[in-house]
Design brief:
Elements lengths: L3 E4 L4 E4 L9 E4 L4 E6 L6 E3 L23 E6 L9 E3 L12 E7 L2 E8 L2 E8 L6 E10 L5 E10 L7 H4 L1 H4 L5 E4 L2 E4 L9 E7 L5 E5 H5 L9 H5 L12 E11 L4 E12 L19 H8 L2 H19 L2 E4 L3 H21 L14 E2 H11 L4 H12 L11 E2 L17 H16 L8 E2 L9 E2 H13 L44 E2 H21 L2 H22 L8 E2 L5 E2 L9 E2 H9 L8 H12 L1 E2 L2 E2 L2 E2 L25 E2 L3 H10 L3 H11 L8 H4 L7 E4 L10 E4 L4 H13 L2 E4 L2 E4 L9 E8 L2 E9 L6 E5 L2 E3 L3 E3 L7 E8 L1
Parallel strand pairs: 37-41
Antiparallel strand pairs: 1-2, 2-8, 3-4, 4-5, 6-7, 6-12, 8-9, 9-10, 10-11, 11-18, 12-17, 13-14, 14-15, 15-18, 16-17, 19-36, 20-21, 22-23, 24-25, 25-26, 27-30, 28-29, 31-32, 32-33, 34-35, 35-40, 36-37, 38-39, 38-41
Helix pairs in contact: 7-8, 7-19, 8-9, 8-10, 8-19, 9-10, 10-11, 10-12, 11-12, 12-13, 12-14, 14-15, 14-16, 16-17, 16-19, 17-19
Bound molecules: beta-D-glucopyranose (BGC) and 1-deoxynojirimycin.
Beta-D-glucopyranose binds next to loops.
Length: 819
Amino acid sequence: MRYGYFDDEHREYVITQPDTPLPWINYLGSEDYFGLISNTAGGYTFFKDARLRRLTRYRYNNAPLDMGGRYIYLRDDDRTDSDNSLFWSPSWMPVRRPLDSYECRHGMGYTVIKSKLAGIESQTRYFVPLGENLEIWEITLTNHRDQSANLSVFSAIEFCLWDALDDANNFQRNYSIGEVEIIDNVIYHKSEYRERRDHFAYFACSEKLAGYDTDREAFLGPYRGWNSPQAVEAGRLSGSIAHGWQPIGAQHIKVRLKVGEQKKIIFLLGYHENPKDAKFDPPGSQTINKKTAKPVIARYLNTDQVEEAFIELSKYWDHILDKFTVHTPDIHTDRMLNIWNAYQVMITFNLSRSASYFESGVGRGMGFRDSNQDLLGFVHLLPERARERILDLAATQLPTGGAYHQYQPLTKRGNNDVGSNFNDDPLWLVLSAAAYLKETGDWSILKEPVPYDNQPGSEEPLYRHLQRSIRYTTERLGPHGLPLIGRADWNDCLNLNCFSEAPGQSFQTTTNKEGKVAESVFIAGLFVLAAKEMAGLASNLGEKGDMEAALIAAEEMEQAIWKAGWDGDWFRRAYDDFGHVLGSQENVEGRIFIEPQGICIMAGLGIEDGRARKALDSVARHLATPHGIVLHQPAFTKYYVHLGEISSYPPGYKENAGVFCHTNPWIMIAEAMIGHGDRAHDYYLRINPSAREQISEVHRCEPYVSAQMIAGKDAAGFGEAKNSWLTGTAAWNYVAISQWILGIRPTYDGLRVAPVIPSAWSGFEAIRNYRGVRYIIQVQRKGPGGTVSLKVDGKPVTGNVIPLPSAGTKEVHVNVRLA
Ligand code: BGC
Ligand code: NOJ
């Protein structure tokens, strides 16, 4: 069953019924100001940091679903009898009055919600103009009745601005700090501005207000909800001024529409900062200095400016999506690669795992391993921003080479509450830096001075940071010569040093064991991959000694893996604190895991001698399901204190044998590496959101973006997705399909083209912008596909790397023959 359809031409997903199984959301904003918006106008907004600079409030994890948003109410003022007042939400929620028609279009950085009731059509376009810290809601009303209509339009938001965590644990304070100013038709929210904040929010409207409210209870009426505000019902706002409690912004506009008449109204919600010494106007007063805010507000209350800003936004997305486009025989591949997968990669780049409908924005900032992996799919989209991110991440590395597991986007400082000792973390930095270099050839990044733990004076070139990352592993080996796992490796829930028996302890930060025994085969594989990258990088720099050292370290680790990490039919997963193996025939539960199969083969292990193939056949036999490949089998049926959180989940969910989508592309890549195009693409389709659209009633999450997890075969809800949007699946899927299945992969010396496509495909076309050159690539299959030959601008070249063209070249034509 579907709840909408893809409109690929407009790069939109069109939702045609408001009561989707879960709120289906989109993101607004691409730089500093971000918003989440659901298909029924729920969501919230923040500047840089969803915890520290949240502008509006939202109620997570509550009933009814999705409460708090960008609400507009329409009221038919011709029906004045207050018992029978007709008001509705043109976005269906929160009033939920059935609409005559409804459509929500989620597009690239904008959402349009259109509906009709009682002859009144409304269309609201929500977006954030580039370069601004504000969002626009532009509503267009049309009267389709055969008589004129008297309408009231109400807008409503609930302000935050305090630390969003305080909403849960320190609201006794919030109840007394709310302050607003209303001047010239604009509501300014300035809680805490009198003291340490030098920023405020504003809510403005293009029309003259018939009234406003800034106190929530005055607007809603006692004991009422957003579904039936007393003020909307009565058709009158009371001009309330918030003093503490819950400040809101609600505006009232009266509109008279003749037959067929149309009217646009603009609402602006924005964030503004003042210099510390110019906060007040007049100086010495307690009123906000609005001098620099006013021109911005005036500018975007103009419909022409709004239209222009919207066109700029679509051009921005044209520019980004134009970096790589494909035309293949498969619609799901095309749609995801050309539009939605790239879009999701951008969103994960911007927000890491901080703010989604499954992540509160309060607990987790930017993840070290997460953001480094997100970069792998992002780097070609906006390389300058990738560069900055790599340097920011490296600055949270510790002198030991270890890294803070997360950092706060506003301050860019490592998060002490979570700390470090996730022993895989530092290695991901090597992978992201190598990806950046292969994409851009910008070797200067390795010379950039970067501090450790953000401490001024501790700067070293990025190159040294990468070397410390490598050393961090080699200095922490366990009894089998494999890397010690620390708190966890990629699998945050495999907590072999935790041994937690007290409820409520965080599995991630509780460690009751010294950690000198438990080892990770996954980190070993990741290490081989990273050390080989390090060698490539050193060799390009002419650092021969470093290159050799890295290759020797990789080789030694490979030996350790073959000795203690290979189980005969697949790679093992780990050794626990007792030195017992996990992920082996010897185990009753957790006999085979996906992660080491993916990472070890990606690192090149077993490709030559058939052991990779053996491991992948084991994956196919034991782990693959129609809904994707599960993390391990058999699932853990009880809690094992020595394994940690992984066994805390009921079988089939999350890390306990769910389809943890992030890992599936590793297997796709591994299959491609051994030449199995059919299997690789089949796995790709099993978790491809568009390919799953037709089972939306099972999948339940958005069909246009990946979710972190799909419940595994042991779960009651097999096939049901959870935790959509902010997942490493986005970047890794992108890498798997574009670089390994389609095979278009940057190297230090140029673009490699080595497709491993399904046997049913006769070929495909791709256009890839790479280092300022546009590559137009035509791939034709003439045989099974085992060999690749290239003609570049008509001339045959040896190998499968397109040599970098001479300076000034704008376009290169590549013909690829698979024989
Ligand atoms: C989740 C993991 C997540 C971790 C981060 C766990 O509860 O299952 O997926 O990475 O928390 O804190
Ligand atoms: C989600 C985390 O963000 C990611 O870092 C981790 O690898 C996976 N969960 C698996 O535990």
